[in-house]
Amino acid sequence: MNRKSSCCAICENSNRASICAACVNNRLNEYSTFLKTLKNRRNLLYSRLSEVLVAKGKADDQLNWRVHQKEKLASLREKLHRNKEQLIQGKAKIERISCDLSVKYGVLESARSVLERNRVEQLEKFYPNLICTQSLGHMAITSELLHKQSVVIKLICKLFPQRRVDADDERKDGFSGRYDQICNARLPRGLDPHSVPSEELAASLGYMVQLLNLVVRNLAAPALHNSGFAGSCSLIWQRDSYWNARPTSRR
Asked: CA–CA separation, 221 vs 241, rounded Å?
C-alpha cells in the first residue's frame, strides 16, 4: 500500500514511522478505514458462506431423505416379493393338502360304503329273524305313536275349538263377512290386522300362539319361530339359529 503524503516534512522525508501526532492520527485513520473495509468484506463473505452452508445442508438433507426413502422402498419391494412367494407357496401347499384330503375322503367314503354293505349282508345272512322282528316292532311303535298323536291333537282341538263363521249382517262393532274363530274370538282376515277389533285380535292371536306351542311339542315338528304364551300379550320371535332359541337382534 502506498502511503499518502503527509503534511509533516520530517515524516515524509524520513519515510519511516510517523513521529508527530498529526501524522500518527492520519496513519491510524487510514488503518481504521482499511480495517473497516476488510471487516465489511469479511462479514459479507461470512453471510454468503452461511447461505451456501445452509443451502448445502438442505440439499444434503434432501439427498439423505431420498436415499433413505429409496432404501425403504427397496426393502418394502423385497418384502412384498417375499410375501408373494410365500403366498404362492402357501396356496400350492393348501391345494396339495386339499387334494390329499379329497383322496382320503374318497377312500374313507368307499370304505364306509363297503362296510355298510357288508354289515347289511351279514345281518341279512345271519340275523334275518331279528331284522324282521325289529322292522315289525318299529312299525308297531310308529303306528302307536301316530295313534297317540292323533288322540292328543283331537284333545287340543277340543281345548281350542275353531270354526268358520259367515256374518252377512254387520255386527255392532262394524265388522262383517266371513271369519275364522278360535275359542269364540275372531281371527284377522288374511294379513289385515285391522279386519277385527284390537281386543279380539289380541285374544285370538294369543290362543293361536298357545295352540301352536302345544301342536309343535306333541308332533315334534320344527318351528321357524319361538313364541311365548301370555294371553293377549303373547310374543313371537325369530330364533337366532336352529340351535339357539334366543331372539335375534330384530324382533
From this structure: 16
